[in-house]
């Protein structure tokens, strides 16, 4: 245990809290198909700053995506997903540059604010029809890469494009899963280039990938078609509440 704490550079209490949050976020990802990174960022940000959470979240997203990839590959709109992933490569360096350039408190406020705005917009079912075009596709990809570099929540931006494209629910869910997997695979380049993916980030990611994968498995078992319409609103409301609490705590500290 001491070796794990030293490797992850966390106290025992911090380790237990982050592990529990990773499992909870995995459960949410398992039954809703999204919000893993947003859930961890909105809660664990009181322990670790965004620049340290982002590399850890890379490993969590990759581990969750591997578990969910089978259906994602079979049902996703692959040409659309490829376009989003390629465009995101432009946005990632911009977001990371901003994250490493501003003070820690400012980066926390920015990350939590992005989560609140995106979650509230999706809860309100805001539909941006102008995104359903080639320009909208690549613009969405760049924006997704940018917010991923700031808060690792690019999947929530991609959801706006999929909604505007009027895709069936199964295709939307599968496309998000595939985007998160391919996006994780390509974003490693930017993380390494900016020196964000360091030993601590990789260590934490590998360690907390275990409770995350357990959570994803549990979440998948909890998924039922009868309750499917309620999963997304529940997750978004929970996410908004957690992010707002994080913002309040950040401003008061």
From TrEMBL:
InterPro entries: TM_pro_TauE-like, TSUP. Keywords: Cell membrane, Membrane, Transmembrane, Transmembrane helix, Transport. The lineage of its organism: Bacteria, Pseudomonadati, Pseudomonadota, Alphaproteobacteria, Rhodobacterales. It comes from Octadecabacter dasysiphoniae. It comes from the Bacteria. Pfam families: TauE. This is Probable membrane transporter protein. Belongs to the 4-toluene sulfonate uptake permease (TSUP) (TC 2.A.102) family. The chain crosses the membrane at residues 15-32, 38-60, 81-100, 106-124, 136-164, 176-194, 206-224, 230-248. It is found in: Cell membrane. The keyword Cell membrane applies. The keyword Iron-sulfur does not apply. It is a multi-pass membrane protein. Its main location: membrane.
